[in-house]
Amino acid sequence: MVTIEDWTYADFLTYLLILGANADMRITEDEKDRIIRKVGEENFVKVKRVFDRQNDAQRIETVSALYQKFNSEIGGKENLVKAIRESFFLGGDEKEHVMDRYMLMMLKKIL
After folding, report:
1. In-domain check, residue 4
2. Mean pLDDT estimate for the chain
3. How does pLDDT run across 9-51, given as a tens digit for each residue?
4. Contact, 90 vs 31, CB < 8 A?
5. What is the DSSP letter of 23?
6. How many domains does the chain have?
């Protein structure tokens, strides 16, 4: 697994945004731009570099490890899911799409 000990809570949220955008196995330019607007280009590039080197199992391990690391800051998985839901909708049109629901469902299962 990639070392994530020095990651911040913002890095964790960035990772989740990238994971969600990649739910359909690709990140569109629009999704990338939206994430960068929220987290900054430097943070996006740093986290995306790690994400791209991981397989699905490693991504699940990363989400689980970061959730454990920031659990007290988050206040439980429902709060994390709420924060993610409020942060973005993947479709870009402010409507929840099938992939949004799928990503949130998988996040709940991982945690």
Report:
1. no
2. 80
3. 889 989 988 988 887 788 889 889 988 988 899 999 999 999 9
4. yes
5. G
6. 1
